Amino acid sequence: KSIPVFHDVAYKAKDRADLVAGIDEFLDQVTVLPPGEWDPSIRIEPPKNVPSQEKRKMPGALDESSSHSKPEKHSGPELERTGRLFGGLVLDVKRKAPWFWSDFRDGLSLQCLASFLFLYCACMSPVITFGGLLGEATHGHISAMESLLGASMTGVVYSLFAGQPLTILGSTGPVLVFEKILYKFCKDYTLSYLSLRTCIGLWTAFFCVVLVATDASSLVCYITRFTEEAFASLICIIFIYEALEKLSHLRETFPVHMHSKLDLLTIYYCKCEPPAHPSNETLRIWRSNGVNVSGITWGNLTVTECRSLHGEFHGPACGHNGPYAPNVLFWCCILFFSTFVLSSLLKKFKTSRYFPTRVRATVSDFAVFLTIVIMVLIDLGIGIPSPKLHVPHVFKPTRDDRGWLINPIGPNPWWTVLAALIPALLCTILIFMDQQITAVIVNRKEHRLKKGCGYHLDLFMVAVMLGVCSVMGLPWFVAATVLSITHVNSLKVESDCSAPGEQPKFLGIREQRVTGLMIFVLMGCSVFFTSVLKFIPMPVLYGVFLYMGVSSLRGIQFFDRLKLFWMPAKHQPDFIYLRHVPLRKVHLFTLIQLLCLVLLWAIKASRAAIIFPMMVLALVFVRKVMDLCFSKRELSFLDDLMPESKKKKLDDAKNKAKEEEVTPRAGNILVVVSGSPINISDEMSKTTVWKALTMNTETL
């Protein structure tokens, strides 16, 4: 009976004095029998009277400031305020300088080669797609060529000098929304778009440098797992959604003849004809190109020629936008899902029973690259005209009326330089939040990074390149969450398994600068590789996007907690937070996070997407309000940055230590607590007993 009482006393103790008093009472109730003087077969008679235990039950609740009551935050010298101008930046440089040359030596690995080949293909498509969307939104002022050059320049400089070279830079949705709004504004008020954009970019770069100078990156310590996972989950879901959406959009380009009759295939046709009622735009194009409508044999025109002349398609084999394309859409679906499945299977090949360990590890490292090569060869062999990757083949600005250097004022009035301050403030928040949240995710303790990080140096390099890209009229690039997570996952280092059935242990990440550098160097040289890149089908790249989005979801605690809603208690995994937090509180925490995720999605999908970074910032305040709904102890398990596996091992180690203490050993003194034996070694004094018992207060 004494052990449960001491259990209550230990949990209700408010300070060390209460705990020591409880141990004192505990030792007063025990009977110590020296070894060798007691025959275990003889039953010990119970005491004639049992002292009351009520006096040992000390009222009071567990102090919230006790062990493991505060959520672990991002900590370390890189997030400490120095109180000096650019103090954090100087410390980042000093911290990373000793590792600079080793960052290149550590990159000489087959795993790094596999990583950069995979990510080069993964980065190319979004950069070109983003450039194409920018070209449509800005009427060609900034397009695919500018996007390729900007990504290559920014990525190379960032990979060489940033504090965390594992971060991959890319384009973001809010930036595209901002560019559309800015172009429309300039068009409505007859202002030079590129000049005003240059002013905004320079002001944004200046504000980012001010944030670096004032050690503003130290505010990252307030970004907990709650905010990280909501942001990362949203970006992963967007990757998955956009991959599926792009696949579905292929139906517009390659329509399918639904409910067709096989017996009528010989009489199906689709031919080009002049428009019955040409629009004013069509008439203008005909006049400008000197088109003689009556002199054209419309029935002999190709699909491309018919569309360029604004002709119309007529016939039973015609869709809304042109003739039906047999097999193409279904073949694209096969390529898409085959790429995803094959990438996943080859990635897991490392744990297969076939082939030597070296072969399995190599196949696993090159999983995505091998998948792309295999699918390209299959596509060439089948011969169905699937849409291919289009890369600009001439190194020059998209429009002939612009160069590579933009005048910040140009034809605009002088006051536009000052007016650019207002949108620059919004852009600064956008850049800061995107960059730092992604950096926090990459720098998680569970990745076991040994070379440190540099939040101030990262932001400084982004600011410098943002200014350069603004002057050159190139798109702005910032840390890309999914690409960065995929980069880190592709560089994981695991132990070699020697014993049969032994699981490989995670040792850390191969920290180096070579992969990021090679990705963007190769991207800049892509203009000269168009003869090879033109064979890569777009559905294969969409399948790679789906793979990256799904694989990046693994390890996000939020999705593990979502599964618990439909899982009976007996089938729930042994998560550390389920040991210490009531299930209803776990569900409440998950529901709040899910609600925030839905709101973020709604904002990003609406016209208000430009304020998306502000909403991400609001998550920090939502997390602060949650202190009113949850105790600090509960939040320490639900919103902790300590790796799940590490915390579970610590908890298991405590339980194992408790079991070892209870197991009798020869040569020990047997302590009998109201009939329950506990072992204490001969040499243990009363003070030592106190220390031994207080070591595992939570497990008693």
Structure description:
The protein is built from 28 helices and 9 strands. It is mainly α. A hairpin with a 2-residue loop joins strand 8 and strand 9. The model is unreliable at 55-72, 662-687 and 690-700 (pLDDT under 50). Residues 5-40 form the Band 3 cytoplasmic domain.
Write the layout of secondary structure elements.
Layout lengths: L1 H11 L3 H13 L1 E4 L53 H10 L3 H6 L4 H28 L6 H18 L7 E2 L2 H16 L4 H21 L11 H29 L17 E3 L6 H10 L13 H6 L3 E3 L13 H20 L9 H9 L1 H16 L32 H5 L1 H22 L12 H18 L5 E2 L1 H10 L1 E3 L11 E4 L4 H11 L5 H4 L4 H16 L3 H7 L12 H5 L2 H23 L6 H14 L6 H7 L5 H19 L5 E6 L2 E6 L4 H9 L6
Antiparallel strand pairs: 1-8, 2-5, 3-4, 6-7, 8-9
Helix pairs in contact: 1-2, 2-28, 3-17, 5-6, 5-7, 5-18, 5-19, 6-17, 6-19, 8-16, 8-17, 9-16, 9-21, 9-24, 9-25, 12-14, 12-21, 16-17, 16-18, 16-25, 18-21, 24-25
Helix-strand makeup class: mainly alpha
How can the largest sheet be summarized? 3 strands, antiparallel
- For the secondary structure, the number of strands is 9
H/I helix tally: 28
The global form is: globular
Report the helical percentage: 40-55%
Widest sheet: strand order?
Answer: 1-8-9
Q: What is the percentage of strand-forming residues?
A: under 5%
Q: Runs with pLDDT <50, length 5+?
A: 55-72, 662-687, 690-700
Mean pLDDT: 75
Query: Kindly, what is the distance between the CA atoms of the first and last residues, rounded to a whole number of angstroms?
Result: 13 Å
- What does the radius of gyration come to? 33 Å
